[in-house]
Every structure is written in structure tokens, then in C-alpha cells.
Amino acid sequence: MEFASRSPVNPAIDGQSLAIIGADVVVMDEVRRLDIGIVDGRICELAPTLQQRYAHTLHARGLCALPGLIDTQVHLREPGLEHKEDLVSGSNAAAAGGVTTFFEMPNTKPATTTVQAWQDKLQRAAGRSRVDFAFYAGATAQNAKEIASLEGRAGYAGTKIFMGSSTGSLLVAGDADIKTLLLNGRMRVAVHAEDEDRLRLLRRTVCGRQPHDHPDRRDPQTAEMAVRRLLDLSLETMRPVHVLHVTSADECALLRRHPARRLATAEVTPQHLLLSAPECYDRLGNLAVMNPPIRDEHHRLALWQALHDGVLTLIGTDHAPHTLSEKARPYPDCPSGMPGLQTLLPLLLNEVARGTCSLAQVVRWTSQRPAQVFQVIGKGGLVPGLDADITLVDLQLRQELTPNQVFSRCGWSPFLGQKLTGWPKMTLVRGNLVYADGQLVGAPIGKAVKLGPVLSIVPPS
Predict the structure, then answer these.
(1) Quick check: pTM over 0.70?
(2) Which DSSP state fits 365?
(3) What mean pLDDT is reported for the chain?
(4) Taking the domain 69-374, which CATH number applies?
């Protein structure tokens, strides 16, 4: 790998052009040896031999070029909880993991429930985020019209509804209030689907006070009940919805057969695909606690099957960092959540090496489908005319994940100590090199992305 240029500047920032030479490129579900030509931050050529001349050249033989990942569910904790993470440290972790766009969640302090709070996040991200971004607004029982007014603005990811209580104070538990939110606006609504009434019942009746009890305190029925209610309301209002962090075979079966399945998309996290109870609680204790919970092997295998079948549409991390001291509090007083931005791609590349999935599927689940589901303008593939968001990976590199590699402020990962095959080596955002060989490169250049009109009906997978 060699970067040749007339000067040490980033070519896209400098308004110049860049050629990436000799990479194996994942395009149209195939891996082909192609060169990539970039002008003004966009891909302009993709060919065995480039026809134009470029001011800068990046020699990438031996590496594979993937479209930059789009993580549609992250918690970067700013404002109010910056001791866990902020937009700088979180976006640095994204860049190191090949993630070039993130959608950030609203359960900060204060919560992002007003136009003013959303604008504050945009201002905080400008000049500080290393990768591109959009921010959700959090739903309440009173703000449906206000947050609907944000639709169409650059940097607006849509509405986030918490049907069940989790980290933070946001909660919209009743069907009437959820219906009001769905009737206001057109963009796809992202939903944390756990039934609040059942959560309260389980808190009273499940007496265990160990991490192993977490899947019982938030059981599969809790999720299935909420998803059923949500899909019924989606069908009634014809509002497209996105079910976040599906965890159970029960939800997958419902998503597979419900009449609203063409209105709904759904995502799964790497944690739920790769960890299972009780082993993860034996090994990790509170570090394995997240909402909804890691469940047993039956559910884990059902998630993989649903992902392969297209019932689950995409993969998002639910990156939710907490400090180790916070996670060390006795269960159930420890906070729920774990970091995941930086490890999303290495974990999936390791599954490619193991034969669990293909490289083309990883691209589909982490880039193409997120862009399609949310209609992210200019993103989602290595195609002429789209932004030159690219991660160059070494598919053969096998190394252990160690604490000194972690860019997230929390400083840990549930996958520390694991040897993984396949790692990001370089990340480019709109043709700008932002990460290379373990080091951050240049100044933060992230911009707000814009989401186009959402297609109500999801095409079959």
C-alpha cells in the first residue's frame, strides 16, 4: 500500500483528484480487480484501467475496497454524557472501523426532542465529527408535529420511538400516542420495540439479581408483543417503520408473516448474532448486559437465518458505551449497552473468513440496504456518481483486538482478546483519507447527510 501525491494534503479537501489502483472491489455482488477514480469527493470511474489522469494515486494491491459502512443506530452520548463518549471519540471509532456515516440516537441529556436540541447536535458535529452523520429526534407524547417539521432537512435521520423504557427518559408506551406520531410525517420511524406493561410486570415478578437473569427480565414475549402492536399500527397508518435490534425467533416469525411486512424493515446487531446466553454472561458478566438482551443459541441461530432470508434487512451496532466503573455496579443497577462501532466490520469479515456469510452479503447488510431503507442520498455503494466513501480492508490479516486499539472513550469491547481475520486498513470519506494503518488522518471533515423521500413499500429481498 503506497500513497503517491505531489503534496501531503488530502486530495478531496484540496479539490484535487485521486486514483485508487489495484484493489479488489466489491461491486454488484462480485469481487473484481478494478481501479477507482475520484473527483470532487465522488466516484467518477470504476474500471480495470482508468481513462482519466488523477493528481494523486493510492496503490492498494492486496487490499479489498468496500463501500463505507452506514451505521443506523449509535449512541454517542453528547450532550450530557461525554464521560462515556462524545462526537469526536465516537466518530474516530467509526473511522477506524470503516464506518463512514452514522445515525445518532436522541437519548442524551437533554434528550433530542425539539428542533432546537436537534440543531444543537448538528452544530456540535460540525468540524468535530470525522465521518458523515445524521441525528434522530426522540418521540414524546406531545412533540409529533414539531419533530415532523424536521423532515427533509440535511442531517435529520427521522423519528425514534422508545415503546419500552431503556437508557434515558424517553418513552411512548401507548398505542394512541404511537399512532399520533405515525400519522405525522412520512419518513421511516425507528422503534425500540419492547412492551412497557410487560417490562413493569417482569420487574416485579422476576427476582433474580444476576446478569444471567437479564433475558428473563426482558423476555422474548416483551419484544414480540411490542413488534406486533407496532406492525398493526404501521399497517393502519401506512407509515413505514424500522424495528431496531431484533433479538428473538419470535420477532423474526412475526416479521416474516405479518401483513405489514412490506412496510417494515428490521435490523440486528453483531452482538446478538455472535454472542449467546448463558455463555456470554458467564464470561462477560455485566459487560454483556444490553437492551434488548443477548438471548440463547436458539434465538441467535434464528437471527442468522432471518438475516440470510431477508426478513432482517440490515445490521446496525446499537453502539452504546458506558464506562467500566458504571458497568461494574451490581446488577440490575448497572447500565445496559456496549460499544460496537469500531468492531462491526472486523467481526463480520471474520464471519466471512469462517464461511458464515459472503463479502457481498456484508456489503449489502451494512451499506447498500441502510442507504436504500433510509434513502441516504449519495451513499451506499461503489458506483460512479456516489460519494467516494470507501474502506480498504486486508481480508487475510489476523490479529487480536486489544485495548490499545479501541478509539471509543469507554476503552473496552466485549470482543477484547478475540483474534479476528479481516481488518480495515484505510477509510476514506468523500475521497478524504480519515484513517490509515491504526492512525487517524487529517482534521475532522464529517458533514450532515440528507435522506430522500422514503419508499413506503419495501421491495422483496
Answers:
(1) yes
(2) I
(3) 94
(4) 3.20.20.140
